[in-house]
Amino acid sequence: MSLLNDILDFSKIEAGKLAISRFPMSLKSLAEGVCNVHKHIAEKKGISLKLNFDSSIPENVLGDSTRLNQVLTNLTSNAIKFTDKGEISINLKLVKETKSSISVLFSIIDTGIGIPTEKQKLIFQEFTQANYQTTRKYGGTGLGLAISKKLVKMLKGKIEVKSQPGKGSEFFFTLGFPKSRGVAKLQVDDKKSQIIPKRSGKPYRILIVEDNEINSFIAQKFLTNWGIDSQLAENGSIALDMISKNDFDLILMDLEMPVMSGYDATVEIRKLKDPIKSRIPIIALTASAMLDVQTKIFSLGMNAFILKPFNPGDLKSKIAELLK
User: Fold this and answer.
1) Which of 86, 150, 183, 278 is most buried, most CB within 10 Å of its CB?
2) Closest CA to 74 of 120, 133, 124
């Protein structure tokens, strides 16, 4: 599914069908979310992952948190993939500030395998990695960097790389943001004070329907931090069986899965004779921002959708809204 999602994203950008939005956002919360999501993956490889955030960066700015999150996620995942020892850092530094706007330098630095000078321009081309041996050893679609480059360009920036074979790489870009007086729409906070209130003294129960182990692990981790119990189902068919035997307050539903898709599972859930189970709130998890996908999501009876890779604060606010 990773290859399919990358191809869909790339084709949407190429066709000019991907729009950039501008809403109040917190750069600190977004960066913390990316770091927290990837920490366990880095730790499994024995790698240190840290965030260096310039405290002089204003709390709220206007920007597209979803697309910036996607870029930082791609670059951080890439760094982890090609780093076997040492450390990775996500860095945000204020480089310019006026009364109405700021410019921030973003960089992801790793101590990985590095990239030969003659290959550094090629890695931003679609379906390209440094060499055949790299593709065989580390896998990947070869689209992540190409997508990131185009997204950064859409955000009015330019992504660049500095690298030395055997020493590591640094991917960096600078973006400008208007200052915002509004409260950031997406917040990421794992503090216990931010736990979603319990229902009648008991934690809410959410079913995560997702065939990607990493995605389901990440979602479950955040739900646990928010005081929510959760169970996993790897496809729509298993989800239907679990729903028939258990009570859930909400469902996180991936759309593209083997055996039974999220679309088909939603149709079957809405057909259930039990009036409570047939009306369980469903949040679609999708990598597509296409209008026809969103239209289909709501026409089948889903209540909301979250774009992958998701911002934890966005997910949390959608869950809290539907559990009111």
Assistant:
1) 150
2) 124
Chain Cα centroid distance, residue 260: 23
Task: Give the list of residues 6+ apart from residue 317 with CB closer than 8 angstroms, or none.
Answer: 185, 186, 187
pTM assigned to the model? 0.59
Query: Quick one: what percent of the chain has pLDDT higher than 70?
Result: 81
Amino acid at 191: K
Contacts of 170 (CB under 8 A, 6+ apart): 107, 108, 109, 110, 161, 162, 163
Over residues 207-252, the pLDDT tens digits come to 999 988 878 888 888 898 888 999 999 999 999 999 999 999 999 9
In the chain, the domains with their CATH numbers are 8-178 (3.30.565.10), 192-322 (3.40.50.2300)
Give the Cβ contact number of residue 113 at 10 Å: 19
